[in-house]
Amino acid sequence: MPVIIEFNYQIKNRNTNMSKFKFSVYLMVLLPLCANAQVKLSLLQAVQMAKDKSLQASINLNLFYAAQVNYKSSSANRLPLINAYVNAPGLDRSLGQVMQPDGTIKFVERTQALSYGSINLQQNLMATGGVVSISSALTRFDLLSQNGLTNWQASPLIVSISQPLLRFNELKFQWQLAKLRFKQNSRLYAERSEDLSIQITQTYFDAVNAEAELKLAEFNLSVNDTLLRMAKGRYNLGKIGEDDLLQTELRLMNAQNSLDQAKLNYYQSMNQLRIILGLPKNAEFILDPETHLPFFEPDIEKAVSNAIKSRSDFVQINIEQKQIEANLRRAKLNQLPNAELNATYGLSQTASNIENSYKNPAEQQRVSLGLNLPLMNWGRFRNDYKEAKYQFKAKDAQLQLAYLNLEQDVVFLVMQYKQLKQRVSISAKADTIAQKRYEVAKNRYFIGKIDNTNLNIAQTEKDLARNEYYRTLKDYWLSYYRLRRTTLYDFEKQESLFVETK
After folding, report:
1. Does a structural domain hold residue 88?
2. Do residue 206 and residue 343 come from a single domain?
3. Residues 54 and 184 reside in one and the same domain
4. What is the DSSP letter of 114?
5. Spatial separation of the C-alpha atoms in residues 216 and 212, rounded to whole Å
6. Which of 269, 197, 186 is closest to 479 using CA atoms?
7. pTM for this one?
């Protein structure tokens, strides 16, 4: 017997408030002493199993972690960056040009070595978009061709700043996008989880329908085999004609064909269910679709509010809106002069030994302001600004349209859920009535009270009622999970399906 053993553990992400993820490890073990027993698998168990151990669940979790790491990488841009650079030694042996007093050029062989080392701390300025750096450097110069003459140059402190003026702040903008994508990530993870629930529901009830059709086909074949034997006896006694006998025989052949097709459909659907659940190919279980239905009445206003607040695609629209706002701002600033301020302050000294190169360092300062004036661009910047402005208006209209469509979708899902909950109860009663009616019709046929036609009608109604019941049950659970996916809200527990990241 395949036994499902569950172990629970928690993983905490220290850097976010996505605090708890619950996993279960399911071990399929074979117990020879209980080889004929099978475990029952309900829809809710199948959904939880898939969320815990399926390959798709692993994909969803790794995509979530990848986005978390991407956010950490973006966050690192706000922190200081420290670099160390060493070039030692650098040897240069060549012929150099030396100007003589009379104006002629003399080529002199030179052999020199240059060693250099520095450490640099760089900090991005998110508020202004500039960069500040602080560095310290040491250089050694050896002129080997002149009896090993050595010079040292020490720069114990160099502070520099580079600040664009009248330009769009790309650093600040990229950080805003990173925070929005981080916010979107928890919603995407919850949505992918609910998408998996919908996929499991679809596959589970495909298997349920296939199993029901197989049982019906086996039952119909058995009944029709019995009816054929009875029909042959009645025909030999002259109680029915050859037409009724042939009709009964034809029904048996059709029942056999239906059984063969039902076996194939059942085999395929069960294998597909095992794959999506992450179970071994030889795992055996009994489908148990008669799960207790959740009891709650979703409020339309609350559902709409949660959908607007929680949906990842609304965060995506917000991201796109920010990008268009940025394009609008860039296009506007591109019409102005492009300026950049660069300033450097440092201390430096040279000496024949390393100790003296750090004594009494001299100051060095440099300030520059670069200015690029757009004199003639044939209206390109102005047209870029107009295009960005229209794009912004289009995105704003798209957002309003998305709100309206979402509200309509949520209202429809709430109404559909309520309707399907009633239909499940009605379909269950109809199935029970159809089963009883068929039993009555079959017994009456055995005693010769009704003919083949009425029995066929009762059998058809029985099959249709059972199929309709399972189809309604499937539609109900699909509606249930689609409502959860659309709103990212658990109406049973009255809580969100995701944890807001900060």
Report:
1. yes
2. no
3. yes
4. E
5. 6
6. 197
7. 0.73
Give whole-number Cα distances, 37 to 1, 208, 280, 285, in Å.
Answer: 5, 19, 17, 9
Provide the residue range defining the domain that includes 365: 81-125+130-168+338-373
Q: Is 115 within 8 Å of 85 (Cβ atoms)?
A: no
Please name the residues in contact with 240: beta carbons below 8 A apart, sequence gap of 6 or more. 231, 234
Report the candidate in 45, 44, 32 with the shortest Cα–Cα distance to residue 6. Answer: 45
Name the DSSP class of 103: S
Number of Cβ atoms within 10 Å of the Cβ of 157: 15
In a domain, 113, yes or no: yes
Same domain, 61 and 136: no
273 and 137, same structural domain? no
User: CB of 80 within 8 A of CB of 121?
Assistant: yes
Domain check: are 306 and 204 in the same one?
Answer: yes
Residue 59 CA, chain-centre distance (Å), reads 8
Residue 489's Cβ-count burial label (10 Å; 0-12, 13-18, 19+) is buried
Per run of 10 residues, the mean pLDDT along the chain (length 502 residues) is: 36 37 37 50 92 91 91 85 84 75 78 86 89 92 75 91 89 90 91 94 93 85 81 77 81 88 92 91 86 82 87 85 86 82 90 86 86 73 82 83 86 90 88 88 80 78 85 91 92 85 62
Burial (CB < 10 A; 0-12, 13-18, 19+), residue 459, is buried
Whether 80 and 122 have beta carbons less than 8 Å apart is answered as yes
Q: Which residues pair with 116 in a beta bridge?
A: 87, 139
Exposure string over 248-277, b if 16+ CB within 10 A, otherwise e: beebbeebeebbeebeebbeebbeebbebb
User: How many structural domains does the chain have?
Assistant: 2
For residue 269, the number of C-alpha atoms closer than 13 Å in the C-beta half-sphere is: 22
Instruction: Check if the beta carbon of residue 404 is closer than 8 Å to that of residue 347.
Output: no
Sign of CA dihedral 394, 396, 397, 401: positive
β-partners of residue 121 are 82, 134
Sequence-distant (≥ 6) Cβ neighbours of residue 4 within 8 angstroms: 26, 27, 28, 39, 49
Q: Is 241 helix (H, G, I), strand (E, B) or coil?
A: coil
Do residues 355 and 314 both lie within one domain?
A: no
Shared domain for 291 and 428, answered yes or no, is yes
399 and 470 both lie in a single domain:
yes
- What CATH number has the domain bearing residue 415? 1.20.1600.10
- The alpha carbons of the chain give a radius of gyration, in whole angstroms, of 39
Instruction: Give pLDDT, residue 377.
Output: 67
